[in-house]
Amino acid sequence: MASLPKTMKALRYEKPEVWGIVDVPLPTLRPGDVLVKVKACGVCGTDLHIHEGEFIAEFPLIPGHETIGEVVGFADDVKGFKVGDRVAADNSELCGHCFYCRRGQELLCEDFKAHGVLGLDGGFAEYASYTQGRLFKLNNINDVDATLIEPASCAMHGLEKIAPKAGSHALLIGAGPTGLMMAQFLRHSGVSQLTIAAPEGSKMELAKSLDAADIYVPLSRSNPAPQWEQIKKDNPYGFDIVVEASGSSKVLEDAINYVRRGGKLVCYGVYPSSARVSWSPSKIFGDEITIIGSFSETYMFPSTVDYLDSGKVKTKGIVNKVFKLEQWGEALESIRNKSAIKAAIVFD
């Protein structure tokens, strides 16, 4: 690693809303670490929440949790990687010894760390380091589309929790990037009829171009009530699976009314911590409705890489805006004003 620079450009937050592009030393490698030259790193709603101080982030912080890059060095004990390997980084690190880790529930780790979010620097920098067990090699998918692997892994975790039965009918509410990943995974995993209901516009048109569903219901932005009524008329028994992926607590509250008796309601959006919903316990009890929460992922990268790198799950057009690191303010605004379906910071 003698030819590498001593410092790198990085986006650094001192506290919420206080950030700058700064020169910092390259990451120090721990035993088992791999040094990655970042090629692209996805920007999503979580980064906006971090910027506004509404997430679990710790500061100071180099954010960026959807990192794609090329191996340029590694610690002496690393095996299975060589310089030049293209890799996707799983941003999570787990303690392995807390109450939940010892029960095999690592996602609930009491000392959960996440590069670019919690306790570890991330990929909005020219270089980043990750433990070798959290890096996965890529062959076919391009760097920009590969930034979808991390959010798609979260969808894969949701799929594992849902465990669809063959022939299930599902309703997915919302057509954001992870929702579009979830839709395709569901169709690969037992759902015989998938309906997407989402606001009319670019995201719904993208869903159609990806062949993400069987039925598309564009919702009016001013008065969606007639479309929701039509969904009920067309599906009088409801759906086996309803996935609320819009992040609206109001929509989530009503979503239970579309769940078939014996069905599952999945809370998959990112909701404000202050949000509340009101459901009838009698309905949940009498209809035997299962309510599922799905947050982040662990150990989902191998299967997700297989789906995306092989092209079985389509990604074209989801990342519709790219920016340089120096354009961070513009990238953030594209997420805030929703002009970006999905954005990425690119290097080189």
How would you describe this protein?
- With 348 residues, the protein is α/β, with parallel strands linked by helices.
- It contains 10 helices and 18 strands.
- 25% of the residues lie in helices and 29% in strands.
- The strands form 4 sheets. Strands 3, 4, 5, 9, 10, 17 and 18 form a 7-stranded mixed sheet that branches. Strands 13-12-11-14-15-16 form a 6-stranded parallel sheet, sandwiched between helices. A 3-stranded mixed sheet has the order 6-7-8, with no helix packed on it.
- Helix 7 links the parallel strand 14 and strand 15.
- The two termini are 19 Å apart.
Itemize the secondary structure elements and their pairings.
Layout: E1 7-15, E2 18-25, E3 33-43, H1 45-51, E4 67-74, E5 86-89, E6 92-93, E7 113-115, E8 119-120, E9 127-131, E10 135-137, H2 143-146, H3 149-162, E11 168-173, H4 177-188, E12 191-199, H5 202-209, E13 215-219, H6 225-234, E14 239-244, H7 249-255, E15 259-267, H8 281-286, E16 290-293, H9 301-310, E17 321-323, H10 328-336, E18 343-346
Parallel strand pairs: 7-8, 11-12, 11-14, 12-13, 14-15, 15-16, 17-18
Antiparallel strand pairs: 1-2, 3-4, 3-9, 3-18, 4-5, 5-10, 6-7
Helix pairs in contact: 3-4, 3-9
